[in-house]
Every structure is written in structure tokens, then in C-alpha cells.
């Protein structure tokens, strides 16, 4: 609940988020709760260079549920 109480990005000014010019990878676990998927959707609409990638069979704890897919996705943007 503490994580949910921290907010899901609605407190961020749209102009500030939209000013991010670098590529952004938004990872979603296919089994994640809807609140997390909704956050990715909202961010993707506001970030000009965002890409959403869904990891099948993973929850919000995707680094534990699908560590190989998670690592591959992170490394794809980290160089």
C-alpha cells in the first residue's frame, strides 16, 4: 500500500514529463496489476520518445519473474 500511496505519476507536471527528450523504455509485466499498466500508458502518452515493452508471464516484480527477459530489455537501452 505504501507504494500505491506514493502515487502513480499523476502528481508530475505534464510539461516536465513531456520535456524529456531521451528514449525511455517502460517495462510492464503482463501479469501486473492494472494500476501499474495504467501508469505506463499515461507516461507513454506524455513522453515523446517512449517505448512500452510487455514481458509475458511477469508481474510487477518482473526482474524476479522473468530475469532473462528483464535483463535483455534493460541492456537493449543501456547499450
Main sheet attributes: strand count, strand direction, barrel closure = 2 strands, parallel
Mean pLDDT: 87
Query: How much of the residues is beta strand, in percent?
Result: 15-25%
Structural class by secondary-structure content: alpha+beta
Low-confidence stretches: none
The CA-CA distance between the termini, in Å, is 34 Å
Using DSSP, what is the number of strands?
2
> Level of helix content?
40-55%
Describe the structure.
- The chain has 79 residues and is α+β, with helices and mostly antiparallel strands.
- The protein has one domain (13-78).
- It has helices spanning 2-5, 14-18, 34-46, 62-65, 67-78; strands at 24-29, 50-55.
- A two-stranded parallel ribbon has the order 1-2.
- Strand 1, helix 3 and strand 2 (50-55) form a beta-alpha-beta unit.
- The longest helix has 13 residues, at 34-46.
Provide the fold topology.
Layout: H1 2-5, H2 14-18, E1 24-29, H3 34-46, E2 50-55, H4 62-65, H5 67-78
Parallel strand pairs: 1-2
